[in-house]
Amino acid sequence: MMTTTTMRPEVLFGVDLDKPMSQQQIVGHNRWHPDIPAIASVKPGTIFRMECKDWTDGQIKNNDSANDVRDIDLSIPHVLSGPVAVEGAEPGDVLVVDILDVAPFPGKATSWGFTGIFSHENGGGFLTDHFPDAHKAIWDLNGVVATSRHVPDVRFVGIPHPGLIGCAPSHDLLNAWNRREADLIATDPNRVPPLALPPEEKNAVMGSLKGSDMQNAAREAARTVPPREHGGNCDIKNLTRGSRVYFPVYIKGANLSLGDLHFSQGDGEITFCGAIEMAGYIDLQVGLIKNGVNTYNMLSPIFRSSPLEPRYSNFLVFEGISVDEAGKQHYMDAHIAYRNACLNAIGYLEKCGYTGEQAYIILGAAPIEGRISGIVDIPNACCSLYLPTEIFERDVEPMKHSVSQKRQVAVTS
Amino acid sequence: MMTTTTMRPEVLFGVDLDKPMSQQQIVGHNRWHPDIPAIASVKPGTIFRMECKDWTDGQIKNNDSANDVRDIDLSIPHVLSGPVAVEGAEPGDVLVVDILDVAPFPGKATSWGFTGIFSHENGGGFLTDHFPDAHKAIWDLNGVVATSRHVPDVRFVGIPHPGLIGCAPSHDLLNAWNRREADLIATDPNRVPPLALPPEEKNAVMGSLKGSDMQNAAREAARTVPPREHGGNCDIKNLTRGSRVYFPVYIKGANLSLGDLHFSQGDGEITFCGAIEMAGYIDLQVGLIKNGVNTYNMLSPIFRSSPLEPRYSNFLVFEGISVDEAGKQHYMDAHIAYRNACLNAIGYLEKCGYTGEQAYIILGAAPIEGRISGIVDIPNACCSLYLPTEIFERDVEPMKHSVSQKRQVAVTS
Amino acid sequence: MMTTTTMRPEVLFGVDLDKPMSQQQIVGHNRWHPDIPAIASVKPGTIFRMECKDWTDGQIKNNDSANDVRDIDLSIPHVLSGPVAVEGAEPGDVLVVDILDVAPFPGKATSWGFTGIFSHENGGGFLTDHFPDAHKAIWDLNGVVATSRHVPDVRFVGIPHPGLIGCAPSHDLLNAWNRREADLIATDPNRVPPLALPPEEKNAVMGSLKGSDMQNAAREAARTVPPREHGGNCDIKNLTRGSRVYFPVYIKGANLSLGDLHFSQGDGEITFCGAIEMAGYIDLQVGLIKNGVNTYNMLSPIFRSSPLEPRYSNFLVFEGISVDEAGKQHYMDAHIAYRNACLNAIGYLEKCGYTGEQAYIILGAAPIEGRISGIVDIPNACCSLYLPTEIFERDVEPMKHSVSQKRQVAVTS
Amino acid sequence: MMTTTTMRPEVLFGVDLDKPMSQQQIVGHNRWHPDIPAIASVKPGTIFRMECKDWTDGQIKNNDSANDVRDIDLSIPHVLSGPVAVEGAEPGDVLVVDILDVAPFPGKATSWGFTGIFSHENGGGFLTDHFPDAHKAIWDLNGVVATSRHVPDVRFVGIPHPGLIGCAPSHDLLNAWNRREADLIATDPNRVPPLALPPEEKNAVMGSLKGSDMQNAAREAARTVPPREHGGNCDIKNLTRGSRVYFPVYIKGANLSLGDLHFSQGDGEITFCGAIEMAGYIDLQVGLIKNGVNTYNMLSPIFRSSPLEPRYSNFLVFEGISVDEAGKQHYMDAHIAYRNACLNAIGYLEKCGYTGEQAYIILGAAPIEGRISGIVDIPNACCSLYLPTEIFERDVEPMKHSVSQKRQVAVTS
């Protein structure tokens, strides 16, 4: 008889929330580098649990001041749990990852999360010119439901996911990243905020690497902020429980790492620290498709969505085009178009009684959808933002009833 | 007793498919201008029908040659039906429009649509560097289902909608459009394709305007290609039957016009002529919210989504980042990121046996979703493309069964 | 080149709404019998249109009196369009039917439907002891949306479907039906209303059968009221546009017939004439699976649901158990349990300002779901009724906001 | 500043899985009686956790023998956690319960569940005449996903819920239950299995009641098997995380109890022990609507569905009518109709390679939907069973591809 005990999640990576990542019993990492040794190796088919600190390594506290968001040290994030090697994985294979669970740690002290608006000085968020100052909202996470003492009359079911997950790059891939990002930085090297973040030895945490190995690796290791072709910090909210992700493998063992758990997020994660950020755990099961990269033309991760997402069905949708706030026409700029859609939604929510910051936080944290609607109609891209009305415990629909009554008595001439 | 006859759709605007828009009994328009007279005026509450030619005014035929797509005269589109005035509407009001139905004309000769890949010479589509030549697919529209003799093993339920709908601009708004678009063109006036389309008197159709009034208006009237803050050519597939749209009103009477009906469309409408384009009709009911623009901060249209959309639930999702095909890093460019997501999806579908052009057409025409996933993680925007697997009558999932069997026999060490 | 014209819906069966079924150019039928000749024969793969009268053959009018419902002649329904033979179909095959479209006839005089509460004298509805008198609501059908001057503040998207569809029975199957229903009637032959309806020669319409052939067939032909193993009057709302139905074939040619079109319906169709009944058309495509009955153990129809249903997501759910209104305990009686769930919903809606009859009609006509929840917990079956709150334009949720505010200030002791 | 610590779930009721309910530190109950003292009292607004044993009090083991199911002692279930009193609750109020989380206990030894087919001797399930012998399937519960070594190629996301939850009855209500159920039993007192279960002193667990109080209460306390108007053992799968339930209050304090946690269930829970039964915990938040029973006509619980349910979209649907297996016609019997729908689905799944018992277990445990379709068309009720095809990792659709290809080459004559 087959025993079931082999199928239970084993904690491969545990964390002590009172210690920084660099002092954990098993040390994770906060840079991408192929030489960071795996913390464990598992066979295909294994189910295991990874515990994670929040992406800032505990810099943000459950209180009512945003000073911690303002003063965050950005050389520390994202602290990642892993890497986990998978037996038999080789470059060109595809690593299949079933996401089985994502949740905050249970208990009074840990079932909370935060959404931060970054201040302009440390990079800001998507709307930093409109919201230059740091703000913070603390969310209570009760089972599947999020509420916040800082955002009244909002209550929704989260869509928990890892903001950041991917396999280690090969040396070649790492070099390509560094080269292309350096080229970009070189176009405006003194820009504040910078165009991209170069490797940064300070505060690098490199797993079990030591001494000169560690220093050499840290000098060239990639920062974790951007998503890249291996996945990484994609911040795709739909990588939730029940989804299956296919990752290209670049080095022997695959070396999967992850972190930046979110209890929920709106598409775009627009406040930068924009999801409901949390510490917690994730349960995974891994498999392999040998030579899958070539079989499926898999140049970057593909995933199959989950049947278990919050399915709100009544949306108010806001549109934006690529004309900037000064009225200047830009050419097919989906970035500006989505910014306008966000600003239009915020302007609307202000009429519903929210402050701009609260509205901004709602768009970053709740399961809103951001869509590329029209992207070929020169010169304007059109993006749209889908706001589920069911997350509000106040009425946010435009004159729902009175319009309708007016329409009932109207007749044609 | 109240009679129901006042509630039936009256055809306010009819079309003869054998005649160009300029020769219809009631002439529509193909430029935006506040002076184009309304073709009818209705009271709030009225339900009415508008018939529409396809956006090209009938230039594309139901056959197997793409020459008509290649040779299209772009000074003609989009031919619009309207404007319809609403009694009592004044600048600052919000026009409420319930979309009740959108469908092709019934009958053998008319229940079809087309998807075109534009050739590079006349602007091309979103992936024109990869697909520079004109292609065309003809779709059979049978009830709610679309199939194509040019795209095998694809069968899906459409999401019919007007690609283009909005109220007439005021003179001030029109001037702002012309000024900002001229400024953009001036940055590279000889570019092919152009950055934007200036007013074009040739082939302008201006409703019932005549003589010098017509000529003067045509010289400054805005082209219909881009979406703008009044809505216009938004190509938002979710403006489907059952949705309610709120439009800002800029001139007395509101003057609502529409056209460019689509039987279905993927987000982005990426082949340019990328939806399933069709002639057909749309049924609407209108209402008014007096002074709604100010009440709701409504700087551009807002809509409430419909409960009646095709709801596929099993998606394969492709990711893209803002690194271009040459490996160059771009800064937060959602345009390039979405292009990569599209290319990744096409590369995958080629492994499923489709040609690149077929895959491109599928992404443009089927109800795929294009999402802005991460838009704050310098330097990479991350966009994602959600492809419903249920539209395929061949298996497109990566090794669904064999992976799973492998995982069942695997055990932890 | 393949021409598309072969794929367009041809009207195989047309109706003149001003004439009874017996006087149509092509006469349909209102009884089930294997000898009724097919009105046409089509090859597998054919797409065709069937026009239908409403199930009562036009006895109900668009006015504000329920006398027509009260006085209906029940020997006439259901008038069916067909039968259509499929070439090559033989007993034991499975007929595959794609439902492509279902809609009312366009135009002022025809885009309406009715919901009737039957009076106790002619059978009554599911709650006839509570609502013994005839009532009627007329619905305006505008595109995909239904509203009624008789049911205020209700507005929803319909789920159009044929209430009745199936293949002709073989002689053996017909005999089995007649035998078992006669046995049931014989247990209480004088019951009012009767337990079942025996064959009835009066008012039988038997297609093109004439003379003694017609009389002989009419004497033994089965009534159309009940659903049976061939499908028939199943009143399954989910047989809507986009679904695919698999029917067992009992005679050569299959002989598919259908009628009783509904614009919408709640599960159970509880007012008897409980859907939104309408005249209209249905577009179908047929296929064959040879010997499918045995291959798939298909003892009665199977269907694949459509991706295009109205998807309301916020439901109020009412429960019922098998204790009757007098407090008497019944054993595992899902009928009584569902009746209680319906009564509980009606009691609730009365508190929202609806009359009992209006509430009853809403449950019959709107897309509510009726579920068998617990069916093994002696002695009570438990059924539940899912009422979508989004169909109401008045607030029907219990103290949504005030409860929530109360909960926010509460603290644990 | 408001502290968040008051909002964290406190464990009001803990369980030791190695001890029977009668020996827990806080003793729950397995009968309904108003005199069972509350184990705690909370203010409205409180969030708290209740731990639960599985419904059988641990009689079923994680092994491959069904002997434990066969030999179960049915005088023990259902063991319930509670009652919890709510301050201020009085008869006629409505208790509002938000279900925040339901999950198995984490860890190797506890993250599993079972589905049992009961043998005919101890009552059997819904299809006991077809499946008279005991069977058992063990499910591995990994995060949100269930798989079973006893049911190959099935993998689905659960819909966790309490099978049993409700407020304590008043003495009057209890008496009414006992009276009506005794009346039913008296109609066939020696029936095996019995028509209903009378009060049973043996093995009664009555919370902290002692001595003669306990004995007196046990003699009249209601068994927990049936759902009743207070809710109780409703086995409604949609009472899942994110739903809000409104319960009538019958006694001071309301005294809410619950248990019988399910990781998943099909509508009807047809194998009797038909859900995925588990031990685990549930997190709740409670509120009050004073005098709500009268305000809302709330004769039995009402709930608002959750936005977080597994949303499979592709269903195969099986129909059943009220003709029994011997061909006998029954009058409007939804019980028999649903049984036929279940048998038809099982017959189909047998053709897909499952044993009858496996198919039966799938229908009981997976999130299938059971619908009352037609319930007014004499003499046949029609019920339907919606089987999501996406839960299978083998192809279960009827000739999906070959049928379709056949249709493509077919043309009309």
From TrEMBL, chains A, B, C, D:
Molecular function terms, GO-annotated: hydrolase activity, acting on carbon-nitrogen (but not peptide) bonds, in linear amides
UniProt cross-references to InterPro entries, sorted A to Z: FmdA_AmdA, FormamaseFmdA
Q: Name one Pfam family in it.
A: FmdA_AmdA
Please give the SUPFAM superfamilies that the UniProt record associates with this protein.
Acetamidase/Formamidase-like (SSF141130)
| Organism superkingdom | Bacteria
NCBIfam families found in the cross-reference section: FormamaseFmdA (NF045496)
What protein name does the entry list?
Formamidase
Species per Swiss-Prot/TrEMBL record: Dictyobacter aurantiacus
Q: Which gene encodes it?
A: fmdA
